[in-house]
Design goal:
Blueprint (H helix, E strand, L loop, with lengths): L4 E8 L4 E6 L2 H9 L5 H5 L2 E10 L2 H12 L3 H11 L2
């Protein structure tokens, strides 16, 4: 079985969005909840994963993460809205 990678966005308690990539979204989210995920999510408590997109390679997931991180908050909200349809 080929390894899959994901770009994900987490909603935090203060309504900010954190974007990252991983090969296991649930495990990574759990790490964020335990304060072991990222400095940002230690300061901004994660609430839930609001976006997840699968990629066949780590580099593709990382490129998508970089693209999303450059978006404005408004554009990120638009991305979430469009992904729900």
């Amino acid at each position: 079985m080929d390894k899959r990678y994901y770009t994900y966005i987490i909603l935090t308690e203060n309504d900010t969005l954190y974007c990252g990539y991983t090969d296991d979204v649930e495990k990574r989210f759990q790490a964020h909840l335990e304060g072991k995920g990222a400095k940002y999510t230690r300061a901004n408590k994660p609430v839930k994963v609001v976006y997840k997109k699968e990629f066949p390679s780590k580099s593709e997931a990382m490129k998508e993460e970089a693209r999303i991180k450059k978006l404005s908050h408004k554009d990120k909200i638009q991305l979430l809205t469009n992904s729900e349809k």
